[in-house]
Each structure stands twice: as structure tokens, then as C-alpha cells.
Amino acid sequence: MDLTKNFIKTKRPCAEGFRWFLQHHAQGSDYQPLLDALVAAGRVDDACWLLAQFGPTGAVLAVDAIDAEALVFAGSLEVKGNIEIGTVLRTGGAIRAGGGIRAGVSIEGGDDIRVAGGIQCGGKLTAAGKVDAGWGVHVLGDMRVDGTLRAGWDIACGGMLTLGGDCNAGHEIVLGGAARCEQGIRAGGAITAQGELRAGRGIESGAGIECGAHLDAASGIRACGAIVAGGAIRAGESLQAGEEIRAGEGYGVYAGLAVQQDRWDSSAQVRACARPPQLLSGHWVGA
Q1: How far is CA 14 from CA 18, 37, 50, in A?
Q2: Which of 40, 42, 82, 287 is buried deepest, with most CB atoms within 10 A?
Q3: Which residues contact 83 (CB under 8 A, 6 or more apart)?
């Protein structure tokens, strides 16, 4: 793709960025070489803007490993080993690595992100497809994944988590902010969230579930340990805990919100070590 000054001008670039283009590429430039030149000049934000304007390509960069300060690539990455990025990693297509990914500021993939190792990001992570890691996924900022999120080990997100698919972790899920998942949430270990936790299907934990605000699942909620929330606990179907079920002070515990009342005894059961004092709907069956 040949990007001329008139073509770029139609996208209404910032004045400083357009001046840089006229000084260095007044005769025009191919797409990816221009992205590389912007990154090399320290204009990573301009490179990301350019990718957002002109979109992905079908190009594939296949290498053994990547170690760079920043990388903005319009196509897909296929890396045999690790990807080490000091600041920003952004692609128009998929990211696949036989090792892991580490980025200091942000990771953004235009399609799936799949790695055999782990993912570590010092800022936000965004993926237009799935995120699949053989090890853990640790993100200090917000995380938005349009597809499913799966980690063989644990998942940690310091900001808000927004998922379009399922969330599956082999071990713990630790969330520093609110979380909204369009499908189900499952963890082999504990699930801990500082903010509200909402799932479009069910929530299941191999240990306990602790939520700082409202806990909400369109289907059932099940934990081998306790289910504790700072706000209301709401389940469309059953609520099951190996220990206590406790909502925040002044809030209720609700099961069977998506089930007809005459079917509560089979599809809206509430099980725990003791009856929750705030239980307002559902069929209590004991431990």
C-alpha cells in the first residue's frame, strides 16, 4: 500500500505528525515501512494512529524471537520463542508465540493472541479475538478480550476486565477492578474481585469466591469454599458453597432469578454450611 501525502491528509492527522511525514516521506511511503520509521523515530502513538486508520494487512512476520523497545506491525506475528517489548506491542492481526510475551506499557492484537508460555503486561491488554496462554496472564491495567480468555495457570488483572466469551483459569483469578464476562467464569482456585463481578452464564470456583461489590451470574454460582460479596449475590439458577454464603450488609442473597418459582426446588437450590440470613429467593436445602 502506497501512502501519499494527499491520501494521509484525508485522514486528518495531527499537525505535528503530518509535518514529520512531509519532512521524511514527502514522496510517499509503503505502509509497513512507514510504521517502522515512525516507531524508530519514537513516534509510537503516530504509528498506532496510522494502523487504526488504514487497518490490518495479510502480512506475516515469522521470526525466532523479538526483543525491541516497541513494535507496531500491520499483519500477524508468528514467533518461535519469546516476545520482549519495552513499551508498546500492537498488531493488526494475530499474535502467536512458542514462548511468552512481556510488554512494559500495552499489548493490542487485531485477532487472537496465543502463547505457549505466559503473558505479562505493565499496562492494558486488548485483543479482538481470543487470548490463550499455556501459563499465566498478568496485566496491571485494564483488559478487554472480544473472545474467550484462557490461562493454564492464574489470571490477574489490575484494572477492569471485559470479556466477550468465557474466562477459564487453571488456578486463581485475581481482579483489581470490576469484571464483566458475557459467558461463564471458571477457576481451579479462588476467584477474588475488588469490584463487581458479573457473568452472562455461570461462575465456578475450585476454592472460594470473594467480591468487593455485587456478585451476579445469569446461571448458577458454585464454590468449594465460601461465597462472600460486599454487595448483593444474585444467581439466575442455583447457589452452592462448601462454606458460608454472605452478602454485604443491607444486601440480599437471591437464587432462581431466571427460574419459575414452582421449579426452585430443582433448579434454584441454595446450599451452604448455614442458611444465609439475607436469603430472599431460592430453595434452601442445607449443606
Answers
A1: 6, 17, 11
A2: 82
A3: 65, 66, 77, 89, 95, 97, 99, 100, 101, 102, 103
- Give the whole-angstrom CA distance, residue 226 versus residue 205: 10
Residue where a domain terminates, one of 9, 28, 55: 55
Q: Say if residues 4 and 18 touch (Cβ distance below 8 Å).
A: no
**108: containing domain:** 60-284
33 and 149, same domain (yes or no): no
Over residues 105-150, the pLDDT tens digits come to 999 999 999 999 999 999 999 999 999 999 999 999 999 999 999 9
Band (pLDDT 50/70/90 cuts) for residue 12 is: low
Dihedral sign computed on CA atoms, order 201, 271, 249, 141: negative
How many domains in the chain?
2
Give yes or no: residues 218 and 125 share one domain.
Answer: yes
| 47-61, 86-100, 158-172, 247-261: range with lowest mean pLDDT | 47-61
Sign of the alpha-carbon dihedral angle for 58, 64, 67, 68: negative
The stretches of 112-242 forming alpha helices (DSSP H) are none
Burial class (CB in 10 A: 0-12, 13-18, 19+), 192: buried
